[in-house]
Amino acid sequence: MSHVLDSILETVGETPMVALHNVVKGSKHKFFAKIEYFNPGGSIKDRVAVKIIEEAEKRGELKPGGTIVEATSGNTGVGLALAAAVKGYKCIIVMPQKMSEEKRALLRAYGAQVVITPMVDPDHPMSHYNVSKRIVAEIPGGFLANQFFNPDNVAQHYQTTGPEVWKQMDGKIDMLVAGAGTGGTLSGCAQYLKEHKPSVKVVCADPVGSILYDLYYHKKIVDPPGSYKVEGIGEDMLPGNVHLEKYDGFVRVNDQEAFDMTRRLVAEEGLLVGPSSATALVGAIKFSEKFETPLNIVVVFADSGRQYLSKAFNDQWMVENGLLKEEQIKDSFNRVISAEEALKQYSK
């Protein structure tokens, strides 16, 4: 049975690369999406979760019967909970209040305990960063995954994601664009790609409200951290895995641009991705406009839109958050209607 895998964890990685067409029509550049929702937990964070756990096991930091604790926007938590279920660990995930109900439900489905923290500054005692540290300190056999500062995060993208991109593009890549939450994806991929082709541009698409853009261009915070609806990318502090010196530029993307593109991607390309993926694509389009020579641009699509059905794909939520106007949904085709209404609509 040579085609049978030992566990679901062996399906992590080797995600597809897909050319984009309709949403980038008119551009001189070619855009390609690295579809990370093909990972079993639905996001690029499965890669990081498996790596962090396996390395912790090797070092003896995580022993049988242990408990994995992590502060996360949700996706790393899902990856950790998935791996914990396979390996027999308990898992406690601490996440900010703004994260979607779908993420909370997924975590519970995998057997994790979910701890919700208020939306406060990162140095506040009740921030998800600090609550996770306080919890792990009280648990015998507790292990903090620490994705924001754990170098295994960057190492995994250097060892897997970067090489996959290079191979799938046959080395014909001029730019890589992604968002940065922990920074692991961009930092690891940047290191690998630049070793093979120093001219490759590595660009971060940053939500308006994140401080990373300012830290890159001004070396200090110019605009204080603000709130934004996109989940999983952007920061109110500087993670240790955000290696700014490896990047070639930042571009800001606001919520309206991100959520509009999220809906366009599924409607025009059949790609049901989350708003962070759309942010990366909008950023790639914006940043590419300064280049006259046609480029091959890879955009990392980090997770699935199925985790945002109650938000990005919920008309009422979009209206309530000022991202959609009531008149835009009155005559929309993709509504749920009754059988009577349908028969009346389609009667000759």
UniProtKB/TrEMBL annotation:
Co-factor(s): pyridoxal 5'-phosphate
Domain of life according to the entry: Bacteria
Residue ranges constituting the Tryptophan synthase beta chain-like PALP domain according to the UniProt record: 9-303
SUPFAM superfamilies: Tryptophan synthase beta subunit-like PLP-dependent enzymes (SSF53686)
Transmembrane segment boundaries: none
InterPro entries: Cys_Synth/Cystath_Beta-Synth (IPR050214), P-phosphate_BS (IPR001216), TrpB-like_PALP (IPR001926), TrpB-like_PALP_sf (IPR036052)
Database matches in Pfam families: PALP
Alphabetical keyword list: Pyridoxal phosphate
CDD domains according to UniProt: CBS_like
Protein name: Cysteine synthase family protein
Natural source organism: Bdellovibrio svalbardensis
